[in-house]
């Protein structure tokens, strides 16, 4: 073997190892299918110097494409609509059904586990060199790792939906029995999400916040209805029962592994910015940002929906109350973000849904 060939093989070996390592890091830092697929399309273009990359995910029962992630070296695109396999180009539908296509400027490989879960494609334009066997090998390495990652994430997300669905069902049952504190109005989750985005929270933290928004009052199921519906001032003993509900909510979901990051938000959403809240008297930055967000949205919802012990306020009055308690009960930064969003038409629409 010549030195030249040896170096060529060594370089290729290093490139394959690099590809494996990069995909491994990507997979282990991604926690939902959408993010994984979008990041994979970018990585493929980077490693193989393709002009575009896209991934199809199939519905295994009805044999149609349900998700498409794409990258054209400028922007990522996410298409979440059902497409019959017959409606996509013939060569692409063939790959989705299990064939392999290798052309000068198109490579398509099926994503195969126990069955076909989809397909991955790369394209080059006419100004770029034709794909070679090594390009196909790199794509094969990526495809093999992608299959395992996609299957695991789909299983994980399926389990999430089942568990969250069960918890939401419990909440709906309690609502029918009059546990008003578990009821959240239409638009609540959207308000929480928009506020988190305004505060530049990370995607994973926003997802945790959405879960917390659904679950943070689950512990109220242990609070007697007589206390929750009481119109007069609570006694010291009754208030003590109320103060226990964040810890009870956290204890309820503690056994669920994927909800562990949500626990601090649930446990501390009744803390106040000046340290006078409960259960631990945390203040300022000691309180998780997610908990500070929930505190503002919950208080706003309570003000404009009303409670057995408190009359409803108008939208403007509720906004004024948030401002009035900024720096004491609430984080000023969260209140300011809420006020800025309240000037936007879309956010205002969600606020109106609360009012109804």
Structural commentary:
The protein is an alpha+beta fold and 356 residues long. The chain has two domains: 152 residues, Beta-Lactamase (2-Layer Sandwich), CATH 3.30.450; 179 residues, Orthogonal Bundle (Hypothetical protein af1432), CATH 1.10.3210.10. 54% of the residues lie in helices and 11% in strands. It has 14 helices and seven strands. Strands 1, 2, 3, 4, 5, 6 and 7 form a seven-stranded antiparallel beta sheet that branches. Strand 1 and strand 2 form a beta hairpin. Helix 11 packs across helix 12. It is elongated.
What's this, in brief?
Helix content is 54%, strand content 11%. The chain has 356 residues and is an alpha+beta fold. Strands 1, 2, 3, 4, 5, 6 and 7 form a 7-stranded antiparallel beta sheet that branches.
């Amino acid at each position: 073997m010549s030195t030249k060939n040896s170096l060529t093989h060594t370089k290729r070996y290093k490139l394959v190892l690099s590809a494996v390592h990069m995909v491994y890091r990507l997979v282990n830092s991604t926690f939902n299918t959408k993010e994984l697929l979008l990041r994979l399309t970018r990585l493929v273009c980077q490693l193989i110097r393709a002009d575009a990359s896209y991934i199809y995910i199939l519905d295994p029962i009805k044999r149609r494409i349900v998700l498409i992630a794409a990258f054209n070296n400028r922007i990522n695109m996410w298409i979440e609509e059902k497409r019959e396999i017959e409606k996509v180009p013939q060569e692409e539908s063939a790959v989705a059904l299990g064939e392999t296509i290798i052309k000068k400027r198109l490579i398509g490989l099926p994503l195969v586990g126990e069955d076909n879960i989809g397909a991955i494609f790369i394209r080059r334009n006419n100004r770029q060199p034709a794909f070679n066997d090594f390009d196909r090998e790199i794509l094969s390495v990526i495809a093999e790792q992608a299959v395992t990652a996609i299957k695991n994430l789909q299983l994980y997300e399926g389990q999430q939906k089942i568990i969250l669905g069960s918890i939401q069902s419990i909440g709906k049952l309690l609502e029918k029995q009059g546990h008003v504190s578990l009821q959240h109005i239409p638009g609540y989750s959207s308000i929480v999400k928009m506020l988190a985005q305004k505060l530049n929270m990370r995607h994973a933290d926003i997802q945790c916040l959405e879960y917390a928004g659904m679950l943070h009052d689950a512990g109220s199921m242990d609070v007697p209805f007589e206390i929750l519906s009481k119109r007069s001032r609570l006694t010291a003993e009754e208030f003590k029962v109320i103060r226990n509900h964040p810890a009870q909510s956290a204890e309820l979901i503690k056994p669920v592994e994927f909800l562990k990051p949500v626990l601090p938000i649930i446990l501390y959403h009744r803390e106040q910015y000046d340290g006078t809240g409960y259960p631990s008297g945390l203040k300022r930055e000691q309180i998780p940002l997610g908990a500070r967000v929930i505190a503002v949205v919950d208080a706003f919802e309570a003000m404009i929906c009303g409670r057995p012990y408190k009359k409803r306020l108008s939208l403007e009055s509720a906004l004024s109350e948030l401002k009035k308690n900024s720096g004491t009960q609430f984080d000023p930064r969260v209140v300011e973000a809420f006020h800025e969003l309240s000037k936007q038409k879309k956010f205002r629409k969600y606020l109106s849904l609360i009012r109804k």
